[in-house]
Amino acid sequence: MERKASFSQSRGLGFFLALPVAVCAVAAILLYRKTGVTEFSPALYPSALWSAWAAAALSLISLFVNWKPVKYLSYLLALYSFIQYLSSQATYIVNVFVSIDGTTFSSGMIATSVMYLLTIALGLTAAITAHWQPWKKGGNGK
Amino acid sequence: MTGKKSVRRWEAIAVVLATLFTIFCGSYSLAVSQAASINNALGLQGASVSRSDDAAYIYFPSAYADAQSLETAYLAVCEEVEGEGIVLLKNENGALPLSADEKISCFLTGSVNFNYSASGSSAADTSAYSTLKDAFTGVGLAVNEDLWNWYGSCGYGRTKKGSNYLINEAPWSEIPENVTATIGDYPTAVVTLVRDSGEGKDINAKKSDSTDGSYLTLSEQEAGVLARLTELKREGKVHKIIVLLNSSATLQLDFLQDENIEVDACVWVGNVGKAGIRAVAGVLSGKVNPSGRLSDTFLIDNLSGPASAFLNLNKKYFSQYYADFEEEGLNATQMYYGIYAEGIYVGYRYYETRYTDYVLGAAGAGEYAYAKDVAWPFGFGLSYTDFEYSGYQVAAAPDGKSYDVTVTVRNAGSIPGKEAVLIWLQKPYTDYDREKGVEKAAVELAGFTKTGLLASGASETVTVNVPRESFKSYDAEGHQTYIVEPGSYLLTAARDAHEAANNFLAAQGVTAAVNGRMDADGRADMVGTVTVDELDLSYAVSASTGSRITNQLSFADVNRYEGLKDYSVTYVSRNDWEGTWPRELVNLTIENDTFRADIASGKPIPDDGAAMPVYGEQNGRSLADLRGLPYDSEYWDSLLNQMTWEEQAYLVTNAQFTTVAVPSVSKPETYEDDGPIGVVSSTAKLSMPCEGIWASTFNKDLFHAVGGMLAEDARASGKTGLYASGVNIHRTPFGGRSAEYFSEDPFLSGVASMHEVKGMQEKGVIAHVKHFAFNDEESERNGICIWLNEQEAREIMLVPFQYSLAADQGNAHAVMSGFNRVGTDWAGANRNLLMNILHGEWGFDGYCITDMASSNGAIYMTYKDGLPRGTDCYLGSGSASALDEFKNDPSFAARVREASHCILYAVANYSCAMNGLSGESLVSTTTPWWQTALLTAIIVLAVLTAGALAMWGMSWKKARRNASAA
Predict the structure, then answer these.
(1) Contact B30/A68, CB-based, under 8 Å?
(2) CA of A52, closest CA in chain B: separation in Å?
(3) Above 0.85 for ipTM, yes or no?
(4) pLDDT, tens digit (0-9, with 9 covering 90-100), for B853-868
(5) Which long-range contacts (CB under 8 A, 24 or more apart) does B95-98 make?
């Protein structure tokens, strides 16, 4: 029990967000692979996939390497992956916005976007709070 | 500042900069991939061109020196077209024209929210257009302001729920008493029934708020207002009720048979464009004598035609889906289909033929009540004067290939007016036809003209030339080509299709008195007969190209396509109306490897045995040098050899509202825009009435004038080409793009388009005729499979395209393919259609562009399928490297070169983009400012991010040192 308390007290909040970041990134990848090919988008973008995998991997690595830049890099890769994802869906998005065919955003696309956004938001939060320990007096443990 | 604070500050700066850097880097490739869209939106040019002011190089001069004179001329044509196209359908009790002192009450929200245009590629900014009230007051008529203001603020009006149109009309009960009290002072009721329509969605036959769910039927509220007005009329408080049908689509007119509704006059005005509303007031006030004739049949029951039969059976949706599409893994661009079971019996061809067969008691005709289906026939239209026809003659023309039909028209009334003279044809329906399934309509429009303005008592003798080629029919089974069978071919001059049917019956000795089924006597003296003694196969060879014509579209006929050999469609036949009427849906499945392979994308590239083209030669030729040279001139080879593979790839893949500049051959950029009834980006926000109104003028000079004005407006708006004209068929009343297409009749559509195209292209604006082919509906248009037989394809759906595109007809220099499939093949990827028919039979000398590949159906409109099979360029954002995976395939590369050839040939000879270009002119591409700005931002951000990271690192080190020291 004491060891657990000691462990948690030696890590910042960002540490505990690393796993959710990786989970969200993998969920985004899986959703993209499942729903990314549509009548508007003939193929998946490899850049959207490898960057998301890299973001997830770095986030997991940050569990062992408690170094802020790793978390920031994970966040930036997630952001890059999201932009690549949007690029791959550009035709679809244009079709929705030109409002000619009555096409709307699919639940798959919305879910993928949400997962990407969660990855990005949690990744950034994890990086910023990598050393922040609000449960400790004074907050910043290190 | 403490060390920790400094670390945090640089950390924040570095993260913000790195975030921006990532966003800009990631977005750059997206922006470049959509460069055509961005440039188009920003109005940017991608090339600089050195142009000469020398008049010798102004190949297509504009007739207008300034924007104001152009706008004035445009609006005059707009008003004239509307004035001649408005159709007076009913005029009882001397209701029209209105007298000068009449006071008008305008009813229904459509009055204050008139329909000027349509949505999608016919969209126009109509916010500043004149209102109906402006138009009425402009001709001196007083308008009930209280009622007008109430409708303007009542909160009701046309809307959409999802993709379904709703009428959402204000009920009479909501009109305040103080407003209804004013009606007595303005006792002429003008009731405007309005319907919207547009691209991307057919008009809903269900799920609207009308009495039967169809958007084209009246709502309870609309009918309620008409019924209440009828009560007031019977009480003497309202003097007359005039209904305006303000819609490009044909409203269902069953309400006119309602005993609670008494309409005195009914006028179809279509969508009116920018100035047409003045013509509406002009016709109602008598300043313009209406001379328009219906370009579509107006129906009592909009679902009564055979083309609507499957719509009716399919829960009022046009498209069906393959029952096993899920098991087969078909996507949304593959799973839908539609069957044209009606054969040639589209529009009046059905109603008049069924009527004729019923009158004659033909076998299988069954019971038929024409009056229960048709409110007013195709070609119908009243005038404020009366015209008499005399001296009717049919004689062989001196050319030996046609017949001159002559008739004298006399204005027997008291008001000057014009008369559209319509010539109709009846071909013999023979035993051979019955045996081989060749269908013949009892009435076909075969020619028309319009008199000048005839004063009271004045006469004009008009001659309409009817080519003998009009007698041909397509025999897909027997001779597998066009035939003219022996027999009697009848020609009549009649005011509408139904009068023509009765004239033909009269010529066979049938009278209403003896035959109780005939609803009016015809005039046998208005019928001329041409006898053909023996089978004539001379139309089996194309007059345009000399190539032999034979079946090309068997793959689109369920009964002939190998991949559906277990299925059959019963096409409607006059040989047995009752037995062939569609009574059950044809439910298709995919059980066959042929079908699976054909509906898949990415088919193998056909091996044409072509040699690998030559690239990058320095031959010193310029596109301007080749103006006027024939397409097959050796100089074209020399010029094309100068192009690089990358230039050709960019040219054919990046044609979104442009064809790009090609520096190696000094080809300038061209700029295109939608659409058929007005330039969407019109600087002066101009638009014309709907195409159906143009067609209703039956005036070839006006078709030409409209084309010319569209072109002038395009040029004034910086465009050199228009995605027009729209020539698909009004197959049912529910087609979404009724505003952009002319008519249910292919001949009228074709002739109107041909003259429009000529008017447009004279100005150096290339017409991109659309949507080739069989894109007669909008719903599920992205990849829907259209199944039809070859006779319907050739005698109905392709006819307007042939008139527009054939080298010896309209000679349009571009065509746009449809989103739909023909059978299993995307319309932009079928050699029979795009090569054999379009180029081979018609001699088309332009290029074929896809529909919007950027925002629709990218998954099936592939380069691999389209380019080798007849598509020449993609309306999308491509790149110089877009085709690299096919670069080493000689057949593919040769097709890309040929596509480039088509584009360059059309631009060189027919585009005003060449104005000012001589052989010495230089064309160079330019990088748009936004691209430079993005690159600059990326570089600056990269440097700043690196700097911030360095500062973060140094401040962190320093903080650690300080902490250690402490």
Answers:
(1) no
(2) 13
(3) yes
(4) 866 566 899 999 999 9
(5) B95/B240, B95/B242, B95/B264, B95/B265, B96/B242, B96/B265, B96/B267, B96/B283, B96/B284, B96/B286, B96/B384, B97/B283, B97/B284, B97/B285, B97/B286, B97/B384, B98/B141, B98/B188, B98/B284, B98/B285, B98/B286
